[in-house]
Amino acid sequence: MKKYLNTLFVTTQGAYLSKEGETIAVKIDQKIRIRIPIHTLAGIVCFGAVSCSPYLMGFCCEHDVSISFLTKYGRFLAMVKGPVSGNVLLRRKQFRMADCQKKSANMAGFVLTGKLANCRTVLERSLRDHKDKMNQEVVKKVSDRLLIYIQKEMQKDNLDRLRGIEGDAAHQYFSVFNQLILAQKEAFSFLGRNRRPPTDRINCLLSFVYTLLVHDVRSGLESVGLDPAVGFLHRDRPGRPGLALDMMEEFRPFLADRLVLSMINRNQVRPDGFIIKESGAVYMDDETRKTVLETYQKRKQESLIHPFLNEKVEIGSMFFIQALLLARFIRGDIDGYPPFIWK
Fold it and tell me: Which ranges of the chain does DSSP label H, i.e. alpha helix?
C-alpha cells in the first residue's frame, strides 16, 4: 500500500520549490534549505506566496504527488494533480449512483451514520473523562439525541430529510462544543460555527484543520480512481469536491475536532498566537500555524484498530482505506459502505 502519511507543508513566504534529480528542493532566500526524496511524499501543500517550478509540477504529477495551493491563512485555491488513475467503469458507476436520488440517499445515510456516531463518541469520551468540568446534563442530552438519529433516522431514503437531520445534529453538537473547552475558556469561547472568514479563534482552528482534512481525503479518493467532485450528500457545484466533503464528514469529529480541542486544552496554542483584523476576521500567526501543522502530521502517524478490517492501521492511511471500501461498494463487491466509526 502506498504511504498516505507524509505531506510537505510549506509556509515560509517567498519559498521556491524545484526538482533536483529524484528530490524536491526547497529554496528560501536563494539558499536550498532542504531536499526531500519524491518517494517519501504523498502531497505538498503551499501556503501563500510559495511557488513551484513547472518541471517540479510535472515531476510530482508523474509520481502521483498532488500539490495544493492555499492562501496564507488556509483558504483553498487550486490543486495540481496528474491524470486520474483507476478504471473508468468505476467512475461511470459512481456518476450513475450520484444521479439516482435513492442511491445517493442510501450513501448519504452511511456517511452521516459515521459522522453522528463519531460526534457522539467525542461527547461521551468527554463526559467519561471530564464530567466534573462541564454541564453533564446538557452534553448527555445532545449525545442521546444523536443516538436517536443514528438508530431511527439514518435509514431514510429521502436526501432532503437526511440533510435536515444532519443540519440539526450539527447544530446540537456545536451547541455544547464550548463545554468541551477545559482550559483558556475566556480566550477560546465558542458560540457557534462561522467561517469565510472565521471570527473567533476556535473557528479559525477548525476551518484550517478541515482544509487539511479535505486535501488528504481528496488524495485518497483520487488514488483509487474515484472522482472527488461527484458526491452524494454534497451535490455538484463548480469547484467543490463533493465526494471529498462527503467522506470528510466521518473524519471531522474524530480527527479535526478532537485535534483542536486537544491543542487548546493542552495549551499547545495560545490566545496571543492569533491575529484579529479590524474587520473581525481571526487568523493564526506563523508560529501557531506551524504548531497546528506539526500536530496534525503527528496525529496521522498514530495507529488504531480499524473497526471494519479489524487490523492495526496508521491514521494517515485511513483516507486511502475508506476510499478503497467506497470503491468496492460502488462496484458492488460489498453490500454497503462501512464508514469509519471511532470506538
Answer: 54-62, 88-99, 101-130, 136-152, 159-175, 201-223, 242-251, 258-265, 286-300, 318-331
Residue found under cell 529554496: 27
- Let me know: does 334 contact 322? Beta carbons within 8 Å: no
Rounded distance between C-alpha atoms, residue 122 and residue 127, angstroms:
9
- Tell me how many degrees the CA angle 222-227-231 measures, rounded to the nearest 5: 125
Q: Which domains are seen in the chain, by residue range?
A: 7-80 (3.100.10.20), 88-331 (1.20.120.920)
Q: What is the rounded distance in angstroms from the CA atom of residue 264 to the CA atom of residue 282?
A: 16
CA–CA distance, 181 with 190 (Å, rounded to integer): 9
Interval 35-70: pLDDT, tens: 888 888 877 888 888 889 998 889 888 887 888 887
Please return the burial class of 62, using the count of CB atoms within 10 Å of its CB with bins 0-12, 13-18 and 19+.
exposed
Over residues 180-198, the pLDDT tens digits come to 888 888 888 888 787 778 8
pLDDT given at position 85: 60
